Amino acid sequence: MTTARTDDAMLRERGLRVTGTRLAVLRALDEHQHATADDVVQAVRADLGSVSVQAVYDCLHALTSAGLLRRMEPAGHAARYERRTGDNHHHVVCRSCGAVADVDCTVGHAPCLTPSASHGFAVDLAEVTFWGLCPACAADPVPAARTSGTTL
Amino acid sequence: MTTARTDDAMLRERGLRVTGTRLAVLRALDEHQHATADDVVQAVRADLGSVSVQAVYDCLHALTSAGLLRRMEPAGHAARYERRTGDNHHHVVCRSCGAVADVDCTVGHAPCLTPSASHGFAVDLAEVTFWGLCPACAADPVPAARTSGTTL
DNA sequence: GGGCTTTACTGGAATCGTTCCAGAAAGTGT
DNA sequence: ACACTTTCTGGAACGATTCCAGTAAAGCCC
């Protein structure tokens, strides 16, 4: 893992204290991209022995607002966290199991992501979510959830 | 309201029973586009006198899966429902107060909405959410929430 | 490397939106 | 009208997340 020493530096750079819990959270997210808060709790416990749920939530919030983590919350599923930040990437979410995968923006920078009429809103960010079925769920029929959006 | 008689027909067309609650829910959403479940409960109570929260949730689900309503759930806020369905429109969400406004797709049909690599997912729908501040919140400084995505 | 200040972590209770349950009530086709 | 569904009521339960007050650890200064 080449990230151990780097994580330490990253935390300091952003003025965050370096604690075992924070490093363990970052490590957990290196191994499980798109992990839920609960996944992270499990991973950190496996790593450090024990942590409170709140400590993990605190870390996730601290790291997210420091820009080291990105949080995404697919409708109807628990929030997921990932380490890829600052790049133009979007997500495919499985309707059935909630699995998430990254999707790189086809066209260069934010393509169609400038709203035509923004109704006076000061827009600073665009988020694209693709909905569908992951290979596993497509193969094996399981009840699906309902959400709506742009039909392709 | 020209929709009263039409709503009745729309429900029958989709094989749904026509009940006072359902009509009231549809009426409520004519008046408050992007209403939350709770807003709808309030509106229906003002209209019919009383309803249980569950009756409203049942209606919202029934109408949503019949395609008469569209459900959207901005991360960190309660779900919102709207009557515009089947068209390519997206949303701007206010980080501070959660207000939602419609945004029409600039470019014709689903523009950059075909994921480059879909990781084997059977994608059927793309959803675009713009994040920012509504005019009211931009004017008057209130603590904001944190979410992350594609920076414009 | 000892103290002091600041920030993180613990455990438990509380919140919010939503769903589940069983029974009563109302809509629909014949 | 009648029987058959489907919907509505009220209350309890749920999962994810947050709030709270107290304790423990990290960083900084000398």
Automatic annotation (TrEMBL), chains A, B:
Q: Please name the CDD domains in this protein's record.
A: Fur_like
Gene3D superfamilies noted in UniProt:
3.30.1490.190, Winged helix-like DNA-binding domain superfamily/Winged helix DNA-binding domain
**Which UniProt keywords are listed?**
Cytoplasm, DNA-binding, Iron, Metal-binding, Repressor, Transcription, Transcription regulation, Zinc
Q: Specify whether Cytoplasm is a keyword of the entry.
A: yes
Cellular compartments annotated: Cytoplasm
Q: According to its UniProt record, where is this protein mainly located?
A: cytoplasm
Can the keyword Glycoprotein be found in this entry's annotation? no
The record's similarity note reads: Belongs to the Fur family.
Recorded protein name is: Transcriptional repressor
Give the source species.
Isoptericola peretonis
